[in-house]
Amino acid sequence: MKLLPRNLSGYQATISLFTVTACLLSSVNADNSTDPCAAIARKKIATFTEAKACLQYFPFDKEAADQTLDTVHKIVTELYVFKDIAASPPKTKGLSVVPVDLEHGINIIRNQAWNSDQEFQDSISLLLDKVHDAHLAYSPYCYRQFLFWQPIQLNALIRNQRLVVNVAYVKNDVWPEAKESWVGCEVTKIDGRDAFDMVVDYAVNNNGESKDVNTCFNNIMNTKSYFHGWDDGADDLGYHRFLPAQEVHDYTLRCPSNGTSPSKEQFDEPFTVSIPWVAQVPQGFHSAKDYWTNYCYSGHSTFRKRSLSENEAVNAAVQMLDVDELTKIHNNHVFDLTPPAQNAGPDSSEGEYVHFAALEGENSKVGVIDIRSFSIANEDRDAFADNFTAGLESFEKKGIEKIIIDLSSNGGGDACAGEFIINTFFDATPEYASDVKYSPFLERVIKKSYETDSGKWIDYKSEKFKGAEWYTHPVEYERGGKSVNFSQPITLSCESWDSSLTAKRYNNKIWKASDLLILSDGRCGSTCAIVASRLRLSHLVPAMGLGGVRGNPMQFASFPGGESERLSGFLLELQSLGLQNDPDAPKPFPQRADMGWTFRESYRPAKDSDGPFGDSKNLLEYTATNADCRMHFTDENADDIEVLWGQVAQVVLKGQCPLKEE
Ligand SMILES: *[C@@H]1O[C@H](CO)[C@@H](O)[C@H](O)[C@H]1NC(C)=O
Ligand SMILES: *[C@@H]1O[C@H](CO)[C@@H](O)[C@H](O)[C@H]1NC(C)=O
Ligand SMILES: *[C@@H]1O[C@H](CO)[C@@H](O)[C@H](O)[C@H]1NC(C)=O
Ligand SMILES: *[C@@H]1O[C@H](CO)[C@@H](O)[C@H](O)[C@H]1NC(C)=O
């Protein structure tokens, strides 16, 4: 299950805040025998069963559940741009999309008798995951506080021409029985099934990250070996924030004989170990009561009830949203436990968005631009642009002839930061056109935004229409066999972003498209996906896919849908426009939770005659563009990004990754 894509680079925890609350409550006597949360409070580690008992202690509440589903339903039907095409998606070679009728799914959830609130909440997350659009996600933070670990962590490597499932590292800090000697062992079976089949199945069915199987596969594996810092990996095969489906997995391991390297393939007798999920316990609670207060309770639990009765009253007082709560959610200050430090590549430091590395030795003519995030904080814009210019100037000075643009595990961010990078290399080209789903409610929002000259809507531009007219003159398109109204085609204007920069701009006269290479493990999402797609489709920069399932053509980008929004931010915007009580506005969730969705769909140019503008019939999200060449992880490069970049540099220098004709 996906966590919502982050739009801030820092993963700030709120431990200090929770600790204060917990201390105040420490005099409360929790009964360990009847309160399963009290039984594990203050422990570092709990068993799967203990954690499950705490998470499932909170009863299903029909009224809160209906309120939650009403909001999910409203967002899906009125605001989610792919709702209709998701129910009847086009068959596209290379994409694994199954039809998902979200309205039907919501009805099924609504009519089911749930045993606990956790099971109900997670069923919503699972439903949205099925669409395989990482922008569409539901996160009930109440049930995302434990960290669940499999004490052995896997990656996938090519070894002697075979793709093998391998033990990358063990977590004996959470489970002392995990042995260091298992590292490097091949996993031949998981739960009695062929290990590779099991992992691919899991990637297809349990990971909503992308419509490309290779990308989902990379997302659940290889996290330690290739991690840039976007996704904390909380939906990996062996690392979750949500309650796993079963307590124990059986692994059959085939280990190299003592003193031999794995590639020698001299194995000891295979053996099978049963390995449990282990839960890292959040530290801010003493009992179920304060677990609920600290992690689940929302000031919005009564928003709906009051507004219903107020609807009947004339001149009812305007109900205000809890801005502190929404801001906290929007800034991701909702987790007690921070994710563990990961291997983030060389010189990684918090707040560094882009890293320039000139390679050495036989690769000294090759430079790498490692772009980790486009979520540039407003106050960092100038430094970001300055650094980019300085980086390219230093490459120029060093005589760098070829550039690898590493976009792996980049979850996107600010579209204008992406635009800046494209325009630094090439002459400015217009952004691909896009549109927003039409609804009378959103028309009121967008009109108000123009009237008050505030909010994000005023940054969109249409060729033919002025002001809010791009939205008030809807167009009908066919989506999934249905007629649906959308806005006129628009593009995002980066004028105000650009004009805020004082930094010097780099004017590239050195590197042609064929001197550049996009490197991506497929986990280049959102803004990153749009930047990569434009570089590849419009500017003809070749792309190399990394990892994934061998022999399965792979894309270099995922969830290029367009642009996403989160309920927390959307409600804050409504409040600032004074529209939070609009009868059609989605109501806040009654518990601490957030939802994300794509609200803008980007077109893809189908052929040259479309020009760079794109065609409303071809959506980037529902078309596939494969990488031009491919590289896999091996024993040599999996834990050493410098080695990996060196190998990619050799491919570039030998001209072995030319642009493929489609
Ligand atoms: C509950 O268990 C914790 C340790 O897990 C212990 O510190 C605490 O005193 C126990 N409380 C009661 C009421 O037994
Ligand atoms: C492996 O061999 C070395 C000597 O080559 C020995 O010291 C070590 O104990 C052996 N390890 C195991 C697990 O047998
Ligand atoms: C700019 O580069 C400096 C030096 O490498 C680094 O410390 C800083 O974090 C960078 N700033 C941004 C916004 O990328
Ligand atoms: C689209 O909008 C037009 C009016 O602009 C309306 O007549 C039509 O019914 C709408 N279509 C749908 C599918 O809502």
UniProtKB/TrEMBL annotation:
<dbReference type="InterPro" id="IPR052766">
    <property type="entry name" value="S41A_metabolite_peptidase"/>
</dbReference>
<feature type="signal peptide">
    <location>
        <begin position="1"/>
        <end position="30"/>
    </location>
</feature>
<keyword id="KW-0732">Signal</keyword>
<dbReference type="InterPro" id="IPR005151">
    <property type="entry name" value="Tail-specific_protease"/>
</dbReference>
<dbReference type="GO" id="GO:0006508">
    <property type="term" value="P:proteolysis"/>
</dbReference>
<dbReference type="Pfam" id="PF03572">
    <property type="entry name" value="Peptidase_S41"/>
</dbReference>
<dbReference type="GO" id="GO:0008236">
    <property type="term" value="F:serine-type peptidase activity"/>
</dbReference>
<dbReference type="InterPro" id="IPR029045">
    <property type="entry name" value="ClpP/crotonase-like_dom_sf"/>
</dbReference>
<feature type="domain" description="Tail specific protease">
    <location>
        <begin position="365"/>
        <end position="545"/>
    </location>
</feature>
<protein>
    <submittedName>
        <fullName>Secreted peptidase family S41</fullName>
    </submittedName>
</protein>
